[in-house]
Design brief:
Length: about 270
């Protein structure tokens, strides 16, 4: 709601490719929209130029909204933009968002923590490879590993994990275009996920989840462990091991229900 109120007051909206761009259609006709979006390997507007655009418009007395996807302070370079504005004497209000590291696995029915399975998660930027902590949590199974922007480096990351002693059978899920009608989940064992992703043409944007919570049957009821009233909704029945699935056909751009469920809801 704070974000929508800010947009309603904006004179200028500086937007990213992966931001909630559908809201741009709701802007008044006199609002200037500046697209500074990046694609993998192609950054037509460098960060220092984005900073300049924000400051320049604000110093002209205009109300500027920097529209991002997810959380601006989680691999969103929001901190750099806040610093640039404050250095120029421009007041800034930050409206928190929900990082794709959390929202996308949830939209796919993957809990990052699950009682009796794992109690922590570790988020990394795939562009920088895996540090020792990331390799450790997978090898020891002490936390779920969540990789953002990791599709292009998937092969190298998997090779590093296996060389470091990770269990080859560790479940992996790759969620493409999360929380959109184009959402697709690809699952495989750690030692087979690279080939699986290549066969299915997995592309960015995607969130990669490594760990036991990525197992397709984690939230499925069994005769020995039936669902109870307080249990989470059962995932789509098509979510089988090693399956690549599309979202439920009923999921539309305006929908707020998680694909494949009828109880849990997600607000982007």
């Amino acid at each position: 709601m704070r974000g929508r109120r800010a947009l309603a007051e904006a004179d200028v909206v500086v937007t990213d490719r992966l931001g909630p761009t559908a809201v741009l259609d709701e802007l008044a006709s006199d609002v200037e929209v500046v697209d500074v979006g990046k694609t993998p390997g192609h950054h037509p507007v460098p960060q220092h130029e984005i900073n300049r655009i924000l400051v320049e418009h604000a110093q002209r007395g205009r109300t500027v909204v920097r529209l991002k996807g997810g959380d601006p302070f989680v691999y969103g370079r929001g901190g750099e933009e806040v610093l640039a504005c404050r250095a120029a004497g421009v007041p800034v209000e930050v409206v928190p968002g929900i990082s794709s590291a959390l929202a996308v696995p949830a939209a796919a029915g993957i809990p990052l923590t699950h009682r009796g399975t794992v109690a922590a998660f570790h988020v990394v930027n795939g562009h920088d490879g895996l540090d020792g902590a990331a390799r450790l949590v997978v090898r020891e199974g002490t936390a779920t590993l969540v990789v953002l922007m990791g599709v292009s480096g998937l092969g190298e990351m998997v090779a590093d994990l296996l060389a470091d002693g990770a269990d080859p059978a560790t479940p992996v899920a790759i969620v493409e275009n999360g929380a959109t009608p184009r959402q697709r989940v690809t699952r495989a064992r750690l030692d087979g996920v690279v080939e699986r992703a290549q066969d299915l043409g997995v592309r960015a944007p995607a969130v990669i989840v490594v760990g036991h919570v990525a197992a397709a049957d984690l939230l499925l009821a069994t005769p020995d462990a039936p669902l109870t009233p307080d249990a989470l909704a059962t995932p789509d029945a098509s979510t089988a091991p090693d399956a690549s699935i599309a979202p439920d056909a009923s999921t539309t751009p305006d929908a707020r229900t998680t694909p494949g469920t009828d109880r849990d809801t997600m607000v982007p």
